[in-house]
Predict the 3D structure of the following.
Amino acid sequence: MKEVKLFLGPQHPGMHGNYSVHMYVDGDIINKSRPTPGFLHRGFEKLMERRHWMGNLALIPRICVPEPDINEMVYAMGVEALAGIEVPEKAHWIRMLVLEMARIAVHVMGLGFIGGPTGMYTATYWAIAQRDLILDLFEELTGARIYHMYIVPGGVRKDIPEGFLQRVIDVIDELETKIPEYEELILKHPVIHARIKDNIMLPAEVVWELGVTGIGMRSSTGKANDLRKVKPYARYDQVEFEVPTADYSDALTRMNVKVRELYQSIGIVRQVIAKMPVEGAVNVPVAAGNALRWTVPAGMVYSAIESSRGEYGYLIVSDGREMPYRIAVRGASYPQGLLGIEKYLKGYRIDDASLWMDTMGVCSPEIDR
């Protein structure tokens, strides 16, 4: 048969973000695939080197739209390390609350969005509705639904509103009762089950070759490598949680691990709320009244946290001036979202390409960065 070139994305119901994969197919089998990034937010690393330290706070959340707070956190941690800034105790707990809320929202969306490439749109509608309840909380806390600009060098921008913690509990309590329904509708559905079981494999040798972290690594190798455990930041060393793992590499296993992580994040949120100090400062004065001329001492630091997709890091270099000298972003989904597609999508069917994007947790701006 004649080889045909097909375009998946940048606008397609099965594509996660404005991203494109050029597929060369023979019938419905992919012979070659070539990722084509650059359709969304591009060139963040160089843009950050042309903006003041505090001015980058409006830019960095866009490097991963579904989970913007990880960029705020890892950037703030790097700047704080360079500048020798000590974050107030209460701010640590608020940061953890924000990060786990963001993680829950991403995992819920990832579960539901498998409905796009499989035709189970009920799952997508459920997920969006549930995620919107979390976005309502973010809007109340930060004033914005998506790009929060809330975690800043020195702490967080402002304290939590009165009654907010109880509203968080109400939302996660409702979500916890619905997770079994998600499992029944999605992971146990015969059509979806047939599409993702023993499919979209990510063997351990591929994990190590590409440098995959997060669920992709933990569900293939059985290794509980989670930065919240192995290199705790904020106050993760003061809460109890497990790191779900598995030793099989198909898409169904990754989705099941994602569900188990949802339960763990809900437990972390409850502990954070119970242990968070009632009183205390939530930030320290940084660049007060002089943000455009604030300088960070010269030095180099690598800061990293555990995102919903794995290790997310910033290498930040300062030469002592008002702007970063160099910034490099380690996007957690870069290995499987770029290198993995180009090297390992061969041999799969056309309809599997979207499932790769979904179950691998690809966030396209991390590649466009």
Observations:
- Residues 197 and 252 are 5 Å apart (CA to CA).
- The mean pLDDT is 90.
